[in-house]
Amino acid sequence: MKSIALAGVLPLLFQAASALPHTGNGLETRSLVARDQVSDNNAAFAQFTLDIDTTTASAVNAADRIAVIVALGDSDIKACAANCNENAACKYFVFTSQRYTSGSDTTSTYYRCSLYSRVLSLLDFTYNTATSNPVALHSVGYRRASDFAVSIPGWTWTCYNDAIIRNPSTWLGNRVANSYDECVRKADEYTKYNLAHPTAGSSQTCNFVNFYKLYQYNTATHAVEFKYNVCALYKMELDSTFTTTENQQTWVKGQSCVYALHPPLGDATGKVTVVAPPPP
Questions:
Q1: How far apart are CA 44 and CA 210, in angstroms?
Q2: For position 200, what pLDDT does the model report?
Q3: Is the pTM of this model over 0.85?
Q4: Which of 161 and 222 is assigned the larger pLDDT?
Q5: 176-185 pLDDT, tens digit each
Q6: What phi-psi label fits residue 26: left (phi over 0), alpha (psi between -120 and 50 degrees) or beta?
Q7: Looking at residue 199, what DSSP letter applies?
Q8: Where are the domains of the chain?
Q9: Helix, strand or coil for residue 125?
């Protein structure tokens, strides 16, 4: 999983809320509510899972935004999580660093914590254009870990945000699925069919899947369009060394999670020896 540290930036001190950039949606811009104990921030942050990580976009959907909170620096992301965690209506938060391209200060980095009442997607973000002011430097969106993916008995899961699994040698093809649990069901269907139809006394099983959403980024209009879900089947479990974020300039992946069957079926390649029933 990507680091959430924003390289090369230092905490900034703000004057007052009135001197800060206007939120533009009528919400009160207020200072980040400080927590007394760092451990509280850490505990709250642990309740969330990284969902979206982009260096050229910021969340702009205002309809479900609960609050816009001023932060002092990149370390305040944990306090942002604590604020969301203490608000029963908060389902998602976005932490953004930005810089103005014109005006009296074009060198300072500003930080913003936005709380939302629903889970966002890349369609709720806007990408920087030649006229953007301010421009987003880095935005990360987090959702509650308990809501991120579906727990499925017998399967363990890990999420990689915008990184997907790539290993052609063990890939069994893609299937049509609209959710994590439906993707796992496709793996079960694959295995059941092969066990019922062995080839040369053995059957290939599916022990691992990668489900993610695929978006297309239009470099001319800077718009992101959802294209379809991908459910990739693999023979055996693959770890994070097989993840890739290649070709993200045009085809953007999001909400990528993997599920692994435990214990796996078959040998090291997922092959199961099928013994033919005795003749009647």
A1: 28
A2: 87
A3: no
A4: 161
A5: 999 899 999 9
A6: left
A7: B
A8: 17-147, 149-273
A9: strand
